[in-house]
Each structure stands twice: as C-alpha cells, then as structure tokens.
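Re-running the complex after MR caught last week's input typo. The corrected sequence lines follow. Everything else is unchanged.
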Amino acid sequence: MTDPQVIIKGCIANDRKCQKLLYERYYGYAFKIAFRYIYRYERVADVVNDGFVKLFRNISTFVSNAEGDAEPRLLGWIKKIVINTAIDELRKHNLMPEIGGIPESIWEEAGATNNADNLLLYKELICHVKRLPPSYGAVFNMYVIDGFSHKEIAEQLGISVGTSKSNLFKAKAYLQKTINKETQQAGICNL
Amino acid sequence: MQPLDNDMDNLMRKAATDYPVKPQGADWQKLAQQLDASEPAVKNNGHGVLKKLLFFSPFILAGFVCDRFFIQGHGLLKKREWTENIKSNQDKANVSTVRNRSKTAGIIYINKKKTDPVNVLLQTKITGNTIVENNEFSTLDFPRVDIGISKSYVFPATYNSELTFGAEPKNFVPSGIAKKMQRINFAARDLIGKNSKTTKDNTIEKVYISFVGGPDFSRVKAQKMERAGYSIGILAGYNFTKKWTVESGLLWDRKAYFSKGKYFKTDKIYLPQHSEILQVTGYCAMFEIPVNLRYNLLRKNSKVLFASAGVSSYLMQKEDYNYVYRRYNVDYAGTKVYKRESKDWLSVANVSFGYEQRMGNKTKIRIEPYLKIPLKGVGIGSLPLQSTGILVGITHPIH
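Corrected-run output:
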C-alpha cells in the first residue's frame, strides 16, 4: 500500500494501519519543517506529534485532488498544520529566545558524496536561521521559505503587518551580516 | 549592507527542504494512544449520486404535478362536471366511473357494475350512426351509440358503452326538431363547456404576501455539488390581472458550492506570488432580491398552476472559502472569510413553475421548484453560480 490516495482514504476511515503508514512516511518531512521554528531539538518531536494528532483528527476535511495527484496536496496540508503547531508552541513561550548550542549529533553525516558540500551549506544556513531571535525567525521562515503573506503572518503571530515587514527586513539584514562575517573569516583563514 | 536577494531566498528554500537533520523521536504507539483518547475522525460521507438526484428532483416533482394536473386537467374537469351532472339528477344512477379521454371528440366510457339500466342525460350532438327511436337503442352491439334528442334515454349497459360527441349536429336530423336540437345543443354546451358551475372562488386578491422557504442546491459550471443550503424569506405580489402578477421580496440564502480554481477570479483577492488556486469550496450567506413576473397558466376553483421568470440580485454578507493553492510545486490549503465584499445586481435569471392551493378562507399554500441561471459571476471570485431548489410557502392576501 504505497499510493497516497489509498493511505489517505484509510486515514479518513480511521484505519490505524494507514495512519501509521502516513505517520512514518511523512514524519521526517514534518520534522524538518518544525525544526526550523523550534530551537530545541528535543521539543521538536512533541510539536510534530501534536501536529499529526491534529492532522488525523481533521483529515476528513482533506479534499482529494480531482486531478488525481494527492501527494502535493497532502504535503502542503502537513506543512500548514505543523507550522501552525510550531507557532502555537512559540507563542506559548511568548517567542522568548532560547540559549544553548545545537549539538552536532543531530545532523546526518554528509559523507563523501557529491552533494556533501551542498548539505553542509544547507546545514549552516539553517543554523543561521535558527539563531535568529524567534520573532524574526518565525517571520523569515513563514515569508521566505513557506510562502505566507505579511497579512497571514500578522494574523498568525498576533502582530501588525508593518511589524511583520520590519521583522523580515531585520531578519534578512541579520542573516546577511552573519553570512558576510563567516565569509570574511573563511577568507582570512585561507590567506 | 544589502538585504538578502532573490537568489538567496531560493537557496534558503532549497536548504529548508534538504538540510541533513536526523528526524528522531517518532513514536507511533504514543501517537495512537493520543488518538484513542480523542474522538475518532468523522467519516466523510459522500452522497454524490444522491446529491445529483436531489438537484433534479424539484423538476421531477414539477413534472409530476403538471402531469397530474394537465393530462387530466381539462378532461378531469369535464369528467367531474359530467359525473356531477349525472349524479345531480335523481333519475341517474349506477354509474360507477365515467372517464373522458378526449377533449375534442368527447368520448366517454361508462363502466357499470350492475346490470340495471342506466339513465343518461343527453349532453351532446350526433356524429353519425343510427339515431335512436322509441327510446331504444338498436345499436347495442355496436361500440358506438349515437344519442340525439332531448331527454334521457334508458339503455341497458352491461358492457362498456361509448357515447360519441361531435362538434356539429348531423344534417340528417329532421328539421322539425331542429329547434329542440338547438336547445339541447345549448344545454349541452352549458353542461360540458364554458358556463357550467362557476368556480368556487373567482375573486382575485390584488396584493399578497408570502412566507417561503426551502432547500437550495448550488453548483458552478456543472461541477460536483456540495451540501444543501437553504433559502428563506418574504415575497410580496401584486396581481395586475387574473393571469399576470409581479413579485418581489427579500430572501436569506445560504449556499454551498465547489469549484476548480480556473473559474475563481483572483483579481479581488490577495494571493502569494507565483501561486495558483487549484480549487475552492464556498459556504456563503447572502441577501437575495428577486423581481419576477408570474403568469397563471391554469386557475380552477382554489387551485392555480403558474410559471414565473425574472432576475435576482445577490448582496453577499459572508463568503467563507476553503481553498487549495499551489506555490513552488507544493500545495497548501487555506481558509479565508470575506464579509460584505460583493454586491451583484441582476446577476441571476430565475425560472420556476409553481402550484398554489387555498387552504382556508384566504390563506394559500404554494410550492415552487426553481432554477437560477447565472448571468454573470457572483461573489469575490466572480463564480458563475447556478442554483436549484424548491420554495414552499404560505400566502396571505393583504388587499
């Protein structure tokens, strides 16, 4: 049973087998989304699991794509739910910044593949995003990566549209500064 | 210091998809326990075929009403008059059923259960065959029996007798009794035709008010239907003549509909860049102002069959859309509510057939299946919305 359409139908019918399949299949995808918002690695799993509970409770409202391709729809739906759950978690803690480093053990090893350099680059970029203050980071993630409008971001975070735009500008400036600094340091090291 | 540019944004999006984190913490058992503790998901019941049947059921019902009313319509009236005429005469009896199957030829079949002779009042003229003499029918073996003259005839009718009526008296009627024939013809017309018993109620109220309500089924461009909505409100009518009426009023409509994204215009809404709407499901509430011209097709005693046509305007009060859009090859679902964003004047054409019947002294009940055809798009997405349903109501005269 690999067809997403079949799995979704089973989930709507409250079939535990199908729900488990869906959970295991898309857990990693949901985790990556939540980890961009939630600083602490050990809290991300709880956020993801809460997201899946909400997903299974409301899956009857999932409208199947008349054109037959359910997976993109499902991915978008999972993304929306996980982001909402992550934002709720951040708001519970009043978007307070968290301290502490990100342990290296949570990263997959890039190995000696052709893609290794890219993976390292991606890891660094995401770490930079995670180090943003939560109010900046949430806006940056929602606008640049997840495609929300400033109006939607403002409603979700309980801020004004102006604040959303301002936070985005500041987030981008902060990231630019951080990346430039790293680049300069790397340049100095290479001399 | 330059802010991050579009290339950097694209790189960030790529990084967000492919960055190498270990997704630990998956615990299906724990999740299953949480699900067991909560309510199960509501099963989505699809009644696609049923909804399609419901969409056409108002017209099936209208057809049934028209069929019952029309096919036996004039014939039915004549049948009743004929039966009443027969029954009203004390000499006439023992006719169990009288059926008139033709408006023009006026053929009546009399089925008689008993073998007693039946007296039948003359109602018509001669079309041919043998003229009866001496009050006896010499054509008992024939399927057609001609009746001509002035008074009741007794004939045994142990089988189906056919009384044939013609439009003109035959020339072979002796001139000596022509006057009598004319009188009979006149009498026959009185009995059968136009000046028979007057309708119970010929008075027409000038102004009336109707309270109506009923289910509504809406769709966009023959796509699938969502759940039923409803329509409820007040109509007021002014009768120009016995036949023509103008009606208007105010209705509160709740409609539910689905549409593919290509029919939903996005010029009035905000959409993220590089996004494309795939589908929308709308749940909307609106005021409807219909203006219709009604024509009474048939009026008999306390019953009226009518047809109506006109236009309606929709004043949107709330539009609640669940939509799915695609951005950078990922699908997203969203919800958006618009309040009082759209006024669509003269946006749908109304067509309906209806039946009205008096219930008490003045009150009438009406049932009216309708079809609303879009003249232009309605709502924030300018969707061409087509609706059908039935309005059932109570009408009361004002003046």
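None of the earlier attempt is carried over here. The two ends of chain A are 56 Å apart (CA to CA). The helical segments of chain A are 4-12, 16-37, 41-57, 70-92, 116-130, 134-145, 150-157, 161-190.
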